[in-house]
UniProtKB/TrEMBL annotation:
GO terms for molecular function: molybdopterin synthase activity. SUPFAM superfamilies: Molybdopterin synthase subunit MoaE (SSF54690). Pathway: Cofactor biosynthesis; molybdopterin biosynthesis. Belongs to the MoaE family. Converts molybdopterin precursor Z into molybdopterin. This requires the incorporation of two sulfur atoms into precursor Z to generate a dithiolene group. The sulfur is provided by MoaD. It catalyses: 2 [molybdopterin-synthase sulfur-carrier protein]-C-terminal-Gly-aminoethanethioate + cyclic pyranopterin phosphate + H2O = molybdopterin + 2 [molybdopterin-synthase sulfur-carrier protein]-C-terminal Gly-Gly + 2 H(+). Heterotetramer of 2 MoaD subunits and 2 MoaE subunits. Also stable as homodimer. The enzyme changes between these two forms during catalysis. This is Molybdopterin synthase catalytic subunit. Its EC number is 2.8.1.12. Residues 128-153 are annotated as: Disordered.
Length: 153
């Protein structure tokens, strides 16, 4: 059976439990579910929000490609990836990845692979907004993110 991932790029927030329930309700073979939710951190009280932009259509296509890679490599029984865009306040959700598999290691590995690739391959851009009202530069890619992705090759 071919598993189709659930991929969403959306402005509105998501509910973790609702998404887990949606993914797991129809698959009795699931023995492990791993979730990762990324939040906008306040950087020691200096960051009010992140502004996230994406390339519509291309972001969803790349997220689908990444999700299918994880499904195939780890024999996942389900995968959901949601990434928000717009201005996201400190403490709010940015990204959610849910990987479901018969066993825990495959679910952990699937979720990790998806996040490592999302950070480097999906066309999303972040701009910081300070608590002092300032808007910073667009955030640059990090070498550590590339190294994390490269371990899967």
């Amino acid at each position: 059976m071919t598993i189709s991932p659930t991929i969403c790029v959306q402005r509105e927030d998501f509910d973790l439990q609702t998404e887990v329930d949606r993914l797991t309700k129809a698959e009795p073979g699931i023995g492990a579910v791993v979730t990762f939710s990324g939040l906008c951190r306040d950087e020691g009280g200096m960051l009010a929000a992140l502004e996230l932009e994406h390339y519509p259509g291309m972001a969803e296509a790349e997220m689908t490609r990444i999700a299918n890679l994880a499904i195939e490599r780890f024999d996942l029984l389900g995968l959901t990836a949601i990434h928000r865009f717009g201005k996201i306040a400190a403490g709010e959700n940015i990204v959610l990845v849910i990987a479901a598999a018969p066993h825990r290691q495959a679910a952990f590995d699937g979720a990790n692979l998806v996040m490592d690739y999302l950070k480097t391959a999906a066309p999303f851009w972040k701009k910081e907004h300070g608590t002092d009202g300032s808007a910073g530069d667009w955030v640059s890619a990090k070498d550590a993110d590339d190294a994390a992705r490269d371990k899967w090759k």
